[in-house]
Amino acid sequence: MREQPEIMQTSALPTVQDVLRRGAEFLCGVGVESARFDAELLLCHVLGWSREKLWLNQKESLEAARRELFEQVLRRRARREPVAYITGIREFWSLDFLVSPVVLVPRPETELLVEIALRLVESVDVADSKLRILDLGTGSGAIAVSLARESENVEVWATDISPGALEVAEANAVRHGMIERIRFCEGDLFEPVTEFEDAFDMVVSNPPYVKREEMKDLPPDVRDWEPRLALDGGPDGLDFYRRMVEEGHAFLREGGSMLLEIAADMGNEVSELFGKVGRYSQVDIYQDYAGRNRVAVAHKRS
Q: Which of 108, 156, 241, 289 has a CA positioned 20 to 30 A from the CA of residue 191?
């Protein structure tokens, strides 16, 4: 990375507006595409303000100590560290989730998976019982916590092979008052629930699906910072789908559903995997709001 200039060098006490402008210019100068937006989020983080308060206090002066903190986080962002890792927070499903480098940063595209899952939950008459949902590779717990918060008719189980990820997920469950509604289990995919065949009404997951050869082409914010374990889907990106599709029907009740986030070019391949197993009645591919294939949904044969 090139030599970085003094960001806040000035003879007068700068205002919020001045500091924000210079911060955005600095990030733009080192090639950060979302420079203005990132600068706003980072300054809000340093000041402990909402974005609304930031805009309402543009003329307020900032003392040297706060400017120095802002410079520090700007330099971290210039090294392509994700904003979410710097602030420790990422919004998902209108909730603030704790994140750290041991978990994938939740993406807005994954909200479609939650949306479809909730539609399916609402379509089932559960009477006095609860639908049991299994979230595989829960990471930050964003999917599990969002589902538990949105529906009182679900009992959520969440697995992850990473102890560090589970710590983050559990912290998020506590943060949003869902720790009593979610059962966290350490292990690889279905490994922690091997004794619970035919026990789940729904399996959901946002598995690793980047093709191994394409890992090097990911943006540096992702490639150099986010956990490879949560990204690398094997040579063709389908390693985890094969396992989940082949093993998952044993854990689903009759008529139960499996919902998987997919890459935009994986619709046909994932549909074929479900078809080859022969235990699923249908496969539907849902597109996100950008018109890209995003979620595959299959139902276990009755």
A: 108
| Pairing verdict, β 154-160 and 131-136 | parallel
What are the tokens at 230?
A: 């949560």
**How far is the C-alpha of 158 from the C-alpha of 144, rounded, in Å?**
7
- Is 229:281 a contact under the CB 8 Å cutoff? no
- Contact at 8 Å (CB) between 13 and 59? no
pLDDT tens digits, 220-254: 999 999 999 999 999 999 999 999 999 999 999 99
Cβ-contact 127, 146 below 8 angstroms: no
Query: Counting beta carbons within 10 angstroms of the beta carbon of residue 172, is it exposed (0 to 12), middle (13 to 18) or buried (19 or more)?
Result: buried
Using CA atoms, how far apart are residues 239 and 225, in angstroms rounded to an integer?
Answer: 22
pTM, two decimals, is 0.91
Quote the pLDDT of residue 124.
80
Architecture of domain 89-300: 3-Layer(aba) Sandwich (3.40)
Q: Residue 63 is encoded by which pair of tokens?
A: 């003392």
